[in-house]
Amino acid sequence: MLSSITLLAGAATLLTTVVADTTFPVGVLGTGTMGVTNPPKPTLGTAINQTSMARLLTVNSVDDFCLFAPPTPQAISDSEAFEVAWCTKPRNNARLIPDGTITGVSFLKTDFYVQVMGYGDLTKINIPAGDFGGELDPHGALGDGNPVGGNVTSNITGSDQNFAEWMLYIGNGQFCMRVCTNANSTYSAAAMCWHELDLMGCGFVMPGNYNNNGTFESCEADVAYPPGWYPTATVNGTPVFSTFAQRFTGTLAGGSVYTVGDLSTPASAFFTPSSSNCVTTSTIANGINLANPPTGVPTVGGGQNSNGGGSGPTQTSSNNGGSKPTGGNSAAGTNSASNANNSNKPSSARGGNANTQFYPLIALWSALAGVGAVVLFH
């Protein structure tokens, strides 16, 4: 069943950083320190280094974004703690995504987050064919982040900012990433980038237009509800929600088995937000042949083959009107389509007060084998 939700005010441990900007609501910007492998700030035009261990992602546009992927060929589930940054352009001391890797992208800008969804031959960034991947976020099982020291920036709000909350699903030829850039008293950045529904997949957690393979588009979009939130009523002008908790069964150190989460699983997110003002481009290729970089492009270490090519012209496309995700398997789960209505959607409130959620603590009380309260951190 779905449980009711109450937003709690509290402080979360954040791993990303730089200087906090007071024009942003509480909980939106990172307040920790840059990962030790990372440059001090996002930088375009750094040397190409296909052995880099840097873990600084930037998500700026349809042709300027980065993904986390393994440093050597291996499953995401085996490498989530030490993934490295791969970028579409030479930047952040990161590895360069070879031309021809990404075959389709939809880039969405909303009032609360920026989102990038796409497809490609991810074997070119060391994700094995058929690997159903996993979910990466700034928290991780131990609170150190997956990957440890991973940071994410964007200039979507007008200047480079380090954002505290983000999530990336990647694997099996698909990826989706959301960076949460705003908050208000109802929708915190932590809620908008809720990271505990990894089995549900891209279409459920980050609804949008997944009919984009073969297309590169940038759109403005309405705001989705936080992952797993379903409006049930409005009380004194304030929406009330129920929430879905992914079911999980585990074993305690003493051998006791426990189960948390809901028995029933919703078929989809509450609705798929409409997008508008879409612009397409023919390619997001960087034009760099990694086997033989052109003169003037600094390199570090070895490289790998890639196709050449440059950025193509843009054209305006029609609104997609809330396109449904395609069916089939998606990164870290199964895509879900949605036909629900668009009422009671979040509205922008830049500069408003934000309630920051406590990260969930699931208390399991057991009398077996003298075990007391067990708290699992997610």
UniProtKB/TrEMBL annotation:
Disordered: annotated segments: 290-351
Protein name: Uncharacterized protein
Organism encoding this protein: Agrocybe pediades
Comp. bias (Low complexity): 313-349
Keyword field: Membrane, Signal, Transmembrane, Transmembrane helix
Signal peptide: 1-20
Residue spans crossing the bilayer: 358-377
Compositionally skewed regions (Gly residues) per UniProt: 299-312
Superkingdom of source: Eukaryota
Keyword Transmembrane helix in annotation: yes
